[in-house]
Amino acid sequence: MSRSWSLPFLTSHQGDEKQGKYALIILNQPFSFALLRRLWNASQWRCCADGGANRLHDTLTAHKDIEGSQDLHKNYLPDLIKGDLDSLRDDVRVYYETTGIPVVQDHDQDSTDLMKCVEALTEKERIEGGDQYDIIILGGLSGRLDQTVHTLSYLHKLRKTRHRVFAVSDENAAWLLDEGEHHINIDHDAFGPTCGLLPVGIDYTILSTSGLRWNLTDTKSHFDGMVSTSNHLVPSEPVVTIQTSKPLWWTMELRAKNLES
Amino acid sequence: MSRSWSLPFLTSHQGDEKQDIEGSQDLHKNYLPDLIKGDLDSLRDDVRVYYETTGIPVVQDHDQDSTDLMKCVEALTEKERIEGGDQYDIIILGGLSGRLDQTVHTLSYLHKLRKTRHRVFAVSDENAAWLLDEGEHHINIDHDAFGPTCGLLPVGIDYTILSTSGLRWNLTDTKSHFDGMVSTSNHLVPSEPVVTIQTSKPLWWTMELRAKNLES
Fold first, then answer.
1. Is A171 in Cβ contact with B100 (below 8 Å)?
2. Which of B68, B78, B160, B165 has the fewest CB atoms lying closer than 10 Å?
3. Domain count within chain A
C-alpha cells in the first residue's frame, strides 16, 4: 500500500484549491511570525499547549512593534489553551481569558501538554463526527532533548491512529513514515536542500529511495551503521519515493524565503 | 561491569575568573581555539580572516562522507595518537538542537562512538546528555548544576529493559521503547546524590542544566 504526501500548508503557491482540514498545535518553542502566519492561515482549529500561548502572544507583540499594525493579537486568537499550565505566564493567561478564550488546566501527570491538546482535538472530532483533522505541531523537535524525543516517540505511536501529523519549525518539516511505500510531493520553493531519513525508535530499517541526491537500494539503516542525514532534494525531481521496512522519520529543511511571499 | 560518571566541568564550584561583559580587554584573545576545521561552507569570511591572521589553523576538508563534527573528532584522534597518552573526554557544545537531521546525526554518531571513546558529552544551555552503553551506570549528580528534569531516551534501538534508582519515577525491569513507555520529563531528586541506571541496550541519558549554576 502506497501513501502519498503533500504539504500544501507550506507551499508557496497557495491557490484556490481546498487544502484539507488542519489543526495547529503551538508548543513552547520559538518560531518566526512568518511561519506562524502561514500555518495559522492554513488551519481551521488552533490550540496552544501551555507555554505555547506565551510564544504566540510574544511573537505577535514583537511583530506588532516592528510593523506598528493594529491589534494583531485579535487576528490570531486560539480556539483553546490547554496543559498543566505550569509555563503559561499570568499576563498571557489574563489576556486570553478576558478575551473569552478557553484556558483549560489539566493536571494529569501521565500526559504531556502536547498529548492533552491532541486529546482535546480528538474530542472535538468525536463531537463533529467528520474526518480527522491533519495535525500541524509548531515546535517540538528542537530545544530540550527529552522533549524532542517525546515528540518523536509520541508521533511514532500516533501513526496507527492519526492519518497525518506534521512537526514544523523554521528549520524543518518532519513526520513519521510508517512501514511501506511513500510518495512525497516536493515543492522545491518551500523545502530543501537538505533532508534526512532518520531511523529513531527502531533497531534498523531497510530503505529504498528515489528522487534524492544520494538514493538507497535495499540499504540497511541504523544507528550502528548508515544513517542518511544531510541528504539532498533534487530540484528536477518533483517526487521523492521512500520504501521503509519499519517506521522512519523523514525531515526536510524549510526555505526561509518561501514564507515571506 | 559498572560505569561511574561525573561532570565536574559543569559543577558549580569551578573558581572561574570573572570576565566583564562590557569594556573588557580583547575577549577574543582569551578564547582562541586550537583548530577550526570542516568543509568550511558555513565559516564566515570575516571570522576566517580574524583567526587566520591570529595564527589559528583553519583546515578545510571536503570529504563528503563525514560531517564537520566527525572531522573534528578525527583531528582529536590524530592529536591523541601523536601525544600517545590517554583519551581526552569530549565535550560537544551544541548538536542536539536545531535541524532535526543534525540532532539525529549527533545521537547516532555518539551511539557509534560508545565502542571506541570513553566519554563524549553533548552540552547545550538546555541540557547535558550522553550515551549509556548496555550495562550498569552510576551517575553522580550535582544538584546545583542539573535538574530538575531528566530523561531516558531509547533512540536508535528497538527497546531496552531499564532499572533505575535515584529518580523521582524509578523503573524496575521495565521495557522502554517508542511504541510504549519512554521516560521523558523524569525528575532528579535533590536528596539523591547518585542515579543508577541499568540498561540492556544503548540508551541516551539527559539532564536539564540549571542556568543559575553557570553564573557563579
1. yes
2. B78
3. 2
Nearest C-alpha neighbor of A10 from the set A129, A227, A225, A166: A166
- A247 domain residue, yes or no: yes
Confidence band for A1, pLDDT divided at 50, 70 and 90: confident
Can you tell me the ipTM of this complex?
A: 0.95
Q: Name the amino acid, one letter, at A91.
A: D
- Compute the average pLDDT of residues B178-186: 96
Whole-number mean pLDDT of chain A? 94
**Which residues of chain B lie closer than 8 angstroms to A223, CB-CB?**
107-108, 111-112, 155-157, 202
Residues A7, A173: Cα–Cα separation, whole Å? 9
User: What would the pLDDT profile of B42-82 be if each residue is shown by its tens digit?
Assistant: 999 999 999 999 999 999 999 989 999 999 999 999 999 99
From the list B101, B178, B206, which residue is nearest A201 (CB)? B178
Candidates B100, B101, B153; nearest CB to A146 = B153
Same domain, A31 and A141: yes
Range of the domain at A180: 174-261
Q: Judging by DSSP bridges, how do beta strands A205-210 and A219-221 pair with one another?
A: antiparallel
Find the residue in B nearest to A253 (Cα): B99
Rounded CA separation A86/A103 (Å):
13
Q: Please determine, for residue A239, whether its predicted confidence score (pLDDT) is greater than 70.
A: yes
Nearest to A253 by CA among B79, B103, B193, B23: B103
Last residue of a domain, one of A142, A170, A198: A170
Mean pLDDT across the stretch A71-80?
Answer: 94
Interface test with B, best of A31, A148, A168, A191 (most B CBs within 10 A): A148
* A200/B156 Cβ within 8 A: yes
